[in-house]
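Quick one:
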Amino acid sequence: MGGLLVNVSLSLAVTVGTLALAEAVARRLERRAPTRALADTRGLDWAAEWQGDFYVMKSSAVGWPPWEDFNRDGLRDRRHPLARPEGTYRLVCLGDSVTLGYGFTRDEAWPQALQRLVDARGPGVEVFNVAVMGWSTLQERYAYERIARRYRPDGVVLAIVLNDLEDLQNNLSQPPRLLSALFRRSALVRRVMDVEGREIASVDELFVLPEPPRVGSAYARMFAEIRRLRDEVRADGARLTVMVLPVAEQTGGRPPSPVPQDRIAAFARAEDVALLDPRSALAPLGPSAYLDRLHFTPPGSARVAEAVLASAAIPAAACTTGALRAALAASAPGADPATVPGAALAALMSHPDPAVRRQAAWALGRRGPAAAAARGALRRALGDPDAAVRAQSARALAAIGPPARAAASELFARLEDSSEDVRWAAADALAASGAGAPEDLPRLVRALGNDDTYVRGFAEWMLAEAGPALAAAAPALEARLRDPDPGVRTLAVRALGNLQRGDPAAVAGLAEAVLHGTDDGRWRAARALAKLGPAAAPATVALARALSDPDEKLRKESALALASIGPRAGEAVPALVAAQRDSVPAVREAAGEAIRQITATRR
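Output:
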């Protein structure tokens, strides 16, 4: 027994000594470079950046203001009704930063450009931009499963960028956590694992023939994700189209051989997946289509949208005006909806076919303010038995703008429509036509109690825009500070600040929001209190407590609010003195200003 222990001990000692020597040699030979986590220098490390393999932007937006960059799904898109409107074709566009519209405004991204193109053809198509920076095909499949599917799309376009292969390979080929930990600490493990030999360094490797093994592995990973997505989309009764977005040099004067496109095209043929290649649409723009190697300029995005529209991703019948043209032809053969007199379109708003009525409303809306003479017909159509006609009529009134103010009573009534699509279109039309006059006060207060968060948000936004002129709405807004929806609560805070009503109930509600609100609601509550000046003095204790909050924006806004209150905020001085040592310069500056304002009359 003793001899066995000696032999085992010797073996362990030799093994440890050999490994130690090997580690020492490996460290000496290792190039002098900072130790990195696996995949950290090859694209994005999902685990390190996202603490997982999927993320969206945090947002509690309810849809107001309409230009908010991210909706409550955490996507850079407008808010969409959950229920699919009758007679509407829904197209979901899955992608990453290229689809999101990196580098320019939301409305210049290619899915939004596509929405404008289909809107110009006819009513009935709704485009979704389901994209976030850093996503690859894996995250795009997750996004379909977790977000897009519940909207019951009819079609899905998966926009592949060639660096998706790099991200998939470099993140999904990582070893288990224990081995990753050893990799970070041991030069020997790093040398044996040969991470560089397994990772893709750049998209340039996709153009190499014969295909390196790591590139083949990346394609296998991507194709597995596409198959799974295709099967899920089909099971939901929808159709998948895969679009391969080229890199910049592929649209130049001497493009490289389209090796990646050919590889993906072969897969698509074998798997019966529709494929879209927009290279020919982008080629006329050349370098001007790109911000960098991967991301488009707005003109480049517009060309991608044109390519999608020209494909079979959206059936021609989805946005047809055939019924309208046939109705016009009965009295004027060959008449074009774009050129016929508005009176002829208005007359068709009472046609027995709802498709004709809807398309006539669409054609009037395309004329904008020039269709003001038809607002009476559109106003009557808000009571149409067909929800699609009601919604399209409201959209036409929104396009007409302020002259549609005459339809305010009917539009306010549609805020309680059974159709979510109609309610939202009516709210949009009221905003476009100038709701917020004193006579609107009772109807806006009523809308604050609507079951639909979009409608409640609309009412709060209109009251905020009206400001002190509608200050009598303050009690109804105070009730919304306890709304179950965080986005509605945040809008209520903003509205109360703009109304500038410093009654005790409003101040108490805002102080409560400072301490216990959610998301942006807390710092917005502090900003709202600042607008009330000395009348916000009862909130001093809450603002002083907020000076030590982890949220630096809340700390800054609280200090500014105390400065606005002035001498009546004297009990906050000790907290403000402490805030002058804050790590954030803007907080320190605001705290100093608050102390000066509070103590000004004491000198």
